[in-house]
Amino acid sequence: MVLEGKNSVAKTISEKILSAHSGKDASAGDLVVAELDFVMAQDGTAPLAIRAFEGMGGDSIAMAGRAALCIDHSAPSPLRAISELHALMREFADKYGLELNDVGEGVCHQVMLDKGHALPGSLVIGADSHTCTYGAVNAFATGVGSTDLAAGLLSGSLWFRVPETMKVTIDGKLPAGVFAKDIALMMVGDITADGATYMALEVGGAAIADLGLDGRLTISNLAVEMGAKAGLMEADQKTLAFFDGRTSEKLAPVSPDAGAAYQEEREYDISGLGPQVAKPHTVDNIAPVEEVEGTPIAEGLIGTCTNGRLEDLRAAVEILRGKKVAHGVRLIVAPASREVMMQALREGLIEVFTECGGSVMCPGCASCVGTHQGIPGDGENVISTANRNFKGRMGNPEACIYLASPATVAASCVAGEITDPRRVM
Amino acid sequence: MKGKAHRFGDDVNTDYIISGRHKFKTLDMNELACHVMEDLDPHFTKRLKKGDFLVAGKNFGCGSSREQAPLALKHAGVAAVLASSFARIYFRNSINNGLPALVCDTSGIEDGDTLEIDLATGRIKNISKGSEIDSRPLPRVMLDILSEGGLVEYMRKHGRLAIE
Ligand code: SF4
Known about the structure:
- By secondary structure, chain A is of the alpha/beta class.
- Chain A has 15 helices and 18 strands.
- Chain B is an alpha/beta fold.
- Chain B has one domain (2-137): Aconitase, domain 4 (Alpha-Beta Barrel), CATH 3.20.19.
């Protein structure tokens, strides 16, 4: 895309993408109306978006071929009322020609990536707060509510305030037993739950370059847990290789200009980092695993849009192979998408999860948001690879949720209590 | 607008405003309205009178993008939410659904205080304390959306968002 007008000031990734999509020479703080490349809604937000779309008098969509609905949050449906909402989504998708990702296709965010809908340099909105995940592939992607989504679907555009940017540089080499999730939790602990509110993150550095795409997605996924609007990374060879065979569009990654203005800069060296755990009931309530080791657990969850990808499943299998989940513990595994599930089957990962005593769910959100599949009991502790541990998040306000990496969750399920994965590797 | 303040703390997330275990089940906002804030305060909806205000600290509405959060508050009778800061998706959702969200210094407001709010000027009178505070002005596009009664009505009329 070509900028209209002169582009004199050095720009961040956000400023560049929002300028290119609005035809304005926009800087942080400006309000723009920008043209959208893709829109997405899931079964918790789509029904209201459909109602809003109809309320707006919509009878055709501006986003033909560039809109998807995903049934992932309560899939398969556990209740008659939810089945009716799913039916409404299917009917709407058919009527307006939206892509429908039905039960079993996977968590909306992984589906958007697998299907090549969120491209480098593109502008994407999703009616789900973790839409920021696609920042890891250089898309300016942000979560909106159902009504904004409806306006985008109807008109093809939406208003944005161009965000200020916090630049985060992560250097060093990850020690054994420590993963991208630990970096992400460390960042949330340091930046805090609202430390990046209204800002975009630009995350880079040697440690990010070393990570595979799966790990980078985990970090961008947690951007919203710091209040951020986007969690952007630059595209490199690994990013471009990911899109091989996923899209026929020419990729146009965006890098920040030298001298771009950052509101804040933070640097971390993760060479000495250990496994991190978010304690109940906030994501920024971070402790080193040593501090919570020995806490008894009743349930473990490996999956979600944070950690349900292949690298995550492989890391868990490394620990679970040849072992058994402890008596009294249920391990729930939900691959993030059908593509991930297929590869996990080919690699024998699903066999290990099943053999060790775990239960493998259909690709989707599974127990993450408390609508079905694994609601914890009163007084129970859960250790999960998800991104939120709010009270009641998994469906029971009397349960406590700890967040950690897939390796930490796997090690904890074997021991029956929160365990440092480095002890069992 | 005149009503009583119901005081909450920092980081009130959308799961607390309306839990996922309720919101996935129905589009009936009056049903959801019976459950607002129940994980933080099971008696909230009993204490709340139509036209009252919810007053919080920083980062109100953090968490998910669920629009049921401001919608359920509105249907429960909350006339406006005052906070020292809002999470951005919630903030947009609130304005889009015609529920005023005012950014102001809420530290001096106590539970039960009677407030009078002038939306046009953003001025908040604390009648119980005899003090006054100003809220941060909204960007023009949000004022336009609010004055149409929400984004649905705005889009029905204009078809497309515009910023002058
Ligand atoms: S996996 Fe969890 S956080 Fe991710 S989209 Fe689903 S419910 Fe939301």
